[in-house]
Design brief:
Strands 1, 2, 3, 6, 7 and 8 form a six-stranded antiparallel beta sheet that branches. The protein has a two-stranded antiparallel ribbon with strand order 4-5. By secondary structure, the protein is α+β, with helices and mostly antiparallel strands. The chain contains two helices and eight strands, in the order βββαβββββα. β6 and β7 form a beta hairpin. It is 17% helix and 36% strand. The termini are close together. It is elongated and about 60 Å long.
Length: 160
Amino acid sequence: MTGTPNTCRTCASEAALSKIESFSGEEHGVKLTFTNMPIYLCQKGHKRFIYPELPMHLMESLMAKDNAFGAPPAKEKGFFRKHLHCPGCGEQLPDASTTTATLTKKIELKNVAPFEATIEIPQWHCDKCGKDAVGPAEKVRQDVMHAASFAFRGADLPPG
């Protein structure tokens, strides 16, 4: 591994600051799209993060606030077959989501030019009380992390 930030770790050629216009990943209906994310790009096309901890800091920034989608998380009930229930009245929600909740967040991390992340997650509507709900918080977190992993792999951004 080369010690300077401007050297490619794969081929040791010079790397320069660049950006990826748009790339995304998806897991269980949760879609995560990054726009104008800064990276290092070498002359041979190898990509890497601006700094190795960037994915971890990015996930912390994305998942910093519960209820960021404006709808509370549904409650999951059931022993063998899990079902989602309305956080307001407890009524079982339909198996399929009815709409999508979207959150676009400007990501501002230390030593990195700002870029955007858009998260789209399934949302359910309770016919009984009229409340909207998103998936259980822990499941949404896991799906966002997996979607990010798929996005990074799809964009050829190796870990570290």
